[in-house]
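Hey,

Quick one before I head out. I ran the complex with zinc ion overnight. Inputs first:
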Amino acid sequence: MIARHDLIQRYGGVREYLDQLIAFAEAARNELALDSPLLTQYDYECWMAEIRSYQQFSCQRCGTFVSAEPFGPGAYMVESSTRVCGMCYDELTRTSPSVQRRLARLAVYAHEHPDLCAGLIVETQCRLHMNDWQLECYLGLDDLGVARLALCQRPRPGHENADIATLATMVGCSEAQLRRLFTDEPQIGLDALPGERSAPRPFRLDSDEALPF
Ligand SMILES: [Zn+2]
């Protein structure tokens, strides 16, 4: 059986090349004319959909498949646009003094669902440098309440007051406390904002000391 360290070394290198190759293929695809014979000859869209699905459900560091959960694939963001499995997350953050496991999960989910409150939670938690437990105190919610809030739609422009009141009732916290999430000063220069649709970032094998955000 291959040792975990060797697995990470071997897979991580190949995976970096795969992610770069996909980015190259996408760029080349955009350069082709719509009636290019290459596009009719090969089933490019089908290939790309399969490979994207693989990227989404496999750990970028060790290749382990992550399971589907309410927050999409069970992947964790360690650096901006990197996705790893739970075991890799624990290995990469074992020296970190703060508990941000849920934040790392939500960051992946928010990246794919910028219309939901998950993004606001991630932005606020990063900006105020709170760990998972501190965020719960800040909002007056338990772990389940934070998860429930993350899955809700953001308040609609022009209906903020009514929508925040509804959200507070749904997730079970005070309206005044929840309102802090929507009215506090916005972050400037945050590196891991959700909604940035960037290409997967190469996972550097020498970044094992990296802390989340
Ligand atoms: Zn992994």
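The chain has two domains: 1-95, 102-213.

Talk tomorrow,
K.
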